[in-house]
Amino acid sequence: MKAVILAAGIGSRIRSISNNSPKSLLKVGDLTILEMMLSHIQDNGINEIIFVLGYLQEQIKVYVGENFPKLNASFVINHKYAETNTGYSLMLTEDLINGASFIKFDADVVFDKRILKKLIECEHANCLCVDKNIKLDAEGIKIIVDDNNQILKANKTVLLKDAVGESIGIEKIDGGTAILLFKELKTMMEDSINNQAYYETAYERLIRKNVPFYALDITGLNWVEIDTRKDYIRATNILKSQK
Fold first, then answer.
1. What is the gyration radius of the CA atoms in the chain, in angstroms?
2. Under 8 Å CB-to-CB from 215, ≥6 apart: which residues?
3. Residue 32: which domain range?
4. What is the distance between the alpha carbons of residues 118 and 124, in angstroms, rounded to a whole number?
5. Mind listing the pLDDT tens digit for each residue in 49-107?
6. What is the DSSP string of 203-221?
7. What is the C-alpha to C-alpha distance for residues 38 and 35, in angstroms, rounded to an integer?
8. Structural domains in the chain (count)
9. Which of 14, 24, 109, 170 is disulfide-compatible with 34, CB 3.0–4.6 A?
10. 184: closest CA among 201, 167, 170?
11. Nearest CA-CA partner of 22 in 107, 82, 105
């Protein structure tokens, strides 16, 4: 099992707080977002981590080298980070994944370590972590499932009334599906109109081809995707309450 961390983005909505550093190096309490994430990943037995970098990439490379010197870390650079999105970034990891199972993380998510443990132990090969007890909004990746908890749709345009919850940006993909996923991503990126597509678009394309993805209910376990100052304050308060 490998881990992929997508950390290429600019994080424009929170740059006033991040002070000219990548969003993943923003401190929440005493620790950076990335430090918490990497510690959780290692605590769950994963030591091979692939980073996709772009904006202020050298800061992250130096940080990982200095703070996690024993980590088996690889770095892929998305030189088009300003004009592409997560689908393009994930596509760039194909050679390093090399048909292995992996867990994908958005680099701006602060989460309870138990979420990752639950995901690794999930019986299904392909799972998206979904919070079913959250106030949904237009920005979140909203999920529709069938009676067997199999995902039918996962995107921002799903109607709020139809959604069972929100995907938190952490997923498990098995090796066989990984091969199909990268093929799908490469097909998408042949047309530059898809450069701004999210990786969930490729998931949905596979779902329409009968590749099963399931929703893993992580309701009740804390997590925050830090996009705005409001998210940052919420994450800080959650960590304070856990001390």
1. 17
2. 127, 128, 130, 143, 145, 149, 150, 151, 164, 165
3. 2-242
4. 11
5. 999 999 999 999 999 999 999 999 999 999 999 999 999 999 999 999 999 999 999 99
6. HHHHHTTT---EEEE-TTS
7. 5
8. 1
9. 24
10. 201
11. 107
